[in-house]
Specification:
Number of strands: 0
Number of helices: 12
Strand content: under 5%
Order of helices and strands: HHHHHHHHHHHH
Mean pLDDT: 94
Helix content: 55-70%
Structural class: mainly alpha
Largest sheet: none
Radius of gyration: 18 Å
Distance between the termini: 29 Å
Low-confidence stretches: 1-7
Shape: globular
């Protein structure tokens, strides 16, 4: 997501209060009345579905970079999962990330790591963005799609529907773990790609920015931590290029390829 740099920044109180409220809700998950291992299991499952299949596989590798092709029904399903991660609608997320690659660690990078760890991690999200008018230029392939428009418009209502389903299934413990705690965990894991993998780790390629390969972020976000590799070969479906660079999302793409659900898979250097 993108925020153009300016000398005057005004706080987006809607975003800020929303972030604060979800974090407070996550704290309740640890209260004895709301803790259960079943609820933790539900949260971990949704972490993989929304963060792994939704954000990493769907939003990022499939749609943002078009590193492989899939049937439209599968693309819509993965983008739906990504929308449940509550990181903004798919059109905004994808357009913002494309802008990030165009200006990585430069003035117009929304989460320019040169402005500090806090800024690149989440500070940029609590201010009004002056660049939203630029998003249509970067999302021409999806902006008019009615499914993307629906997910963009009803992101919060979809999360509410998920919460109601979890409440009916397992009570408030499922809600606090499956919605609040899970969202906060997926948020921070995703944000570490913007912050930690532009600060910690090693560099295998000269990518023209500060991107690094960070093994522990790769574990948390299903292979996205091999970020220097990704910035060097941003259209590659595989981010872990060495045998020790474990990339769970690449393994998922290989499985989809075996099943005939992933085609025209792009790889680094090919």
């Amino acid at each position: 997501m993108t925020i153009a740099t300016s000398t005057k920044r005004s706080i987006n109180w809607v975003n800020t209060l929303f972030f604060a409220g979800v974090h407070i809700g996550a704290i309740f998950a640890f209260f004895p009345n709301f803790f259960s291992w079943k609820a933790v299991g539900v949260a971990l499952l949704l972490y993989w579905v929304t963060g792994g299949l939704g954000i990493t596989l769907g939003f990022h590798r499939l749609v943002t970079h078009r590193s492989f092709q899939s049937p439209k029904w599968l693309e819509y399903l993965l983008v739906f999962f990504g929308t449940l991660a509550c990181q903004g609608g798919p059109v905004e997320w994808i357009g913002t990330h494309r802008i990030h690659h165009l200006h990585s660690d430069q003035e117009n990078d929304p989460h320019d790591s040169n402005q500090g760890f806090w800024w690149s991690h989440m500070g940029w999200l609590i201010y009004h963005r002056s660049d939203l008018s630029e998003l249509p230029r970067f999302t021409k392939d999806i902006a008019e799609d009615p499914v993307y428009q629906f997910l963009e418009k009803y992101m919060i209502l979809l999360q509410v529907a998920l919460g109601i389903g979890l409440l009916l299934w397992g009570g408030w413990s499922f809600v606090f773990w499956g919605v609040f705690a899970r969202i906060v965990w997926v948020w921070h894991c995703t944000w570490l790609v913007n912050s930690a993998t532009h600060k910690f780790g090693y560099r295998s390629h000269e990518s023209g920015d500060n991107s690094t390969n960070c093994w522990w972020v790769a574990i948390l976000v299903f292979g996205e931590g091999w970020h220097n590799n990704h910035h060097a070969y941003q259209y590659s479906a595989r981010h872990g290029l060495q045998w020790w660079e474990i990339d769970m999302t690449w393994m998922t793409i290989q499985l989809l390829q075996f099943l005939g659900l992933a085609k025209n898979v792009k790889l680094a250097g090919k």
